[in-house]
Amino acid sequence: MKWAFWILSAVVVASTVTPATAQDPSDAERRRIEAIVKDYLTANPEVIVDALRGYEAKRQASAEKDAQAAIVANRAALENDSTSPSVGNPKADVTVVEFFDYHCGYCKKVLPSLQEVLKGDPKVRTVFMDLPILGPGSQQAALAGQAVWTLAPAKFFDFHVALMQTRGALDETVIMDTAKSVGIDPAKLKTAMANPALKAKIDANMELAQKLNINGTPAFIVGEQLMPGAVDADTLKQAIADARKQ
Questions:
Q1: Are residues 137 and 27 part of one domain?
Q2: Could you give the CA distance from residue 166 to residue 192 in angstroms, rounded to a whole number?
Q3: Which residues form the signal peptide (predicted)?
Q4: Do 46 and 140 reside in the same domain of the chain?
Q5: How many domains does the chain contain in total?
Q6: How many angstroms separate the CA atoms of 78 and 72, rounded?
Q7: Residue (of 150, 155, 146) closest to 102 by Cα position
Q8: Residues 52 and 116 in one domain
Q9: 112-158 pLDDT, tens per residue?
Q10: Do residues 218 and 102 make contact, with C-beta atoms less than 8 angstroms apart?
């Protein structure tokens, strides 16, 4: 509200001081102007509400435009990087990209929606971009996911789902037990996780997220649309339909 007050004050000053005598108002004049502005805003509070709405609409439109440009500029890294785990039709006409963290409760919540979309639409593919921002356990889980992708790509989604359905903290024991439950040799997985290329890949994901102004998980990209936060199946389906029209 303070910024609106001073803007309106400036307008009043501009309308009450002629160019020939333009100068900083005296203390008495300033108090008179502030009283006028205060009375006006008290009588017309909708002015502030309208100004805030207009500002937010412009800010959001600018952010969406910037996001679209960043998505187009980084399309290959988002959709065509073979080191990014993916599931679904390799010849899909729409690719859904998810930035996620294995410790993220909202990522866990949105998983059933993603499964529903993949099951119901044979022309969709999903790319999973690790964004481990919730501590060391997230980092370790991300390395494990990347390692599973390199060892046994066909088992990645089973591992991903199993780890996402795990409740509580993720440590080495939990991760290895989860891998074993889907047919991955824990010893081989641990060795694969030590490959520095996997850490480099995760670092690249973090840099890509920064370019796209993604600050949390989950975040989905469908076509040229960035959708932060947990979305339901219907929202994903609509975004996919919109992408097919582009």
A1: no
A2: 22
A3: 1-22
A4: no
A5: 2
A6: 10
A7: 146
A8: no
A9: 999 999 999 999 999 999 999 999 999 999 999 999 999 999 999 99
A10: no
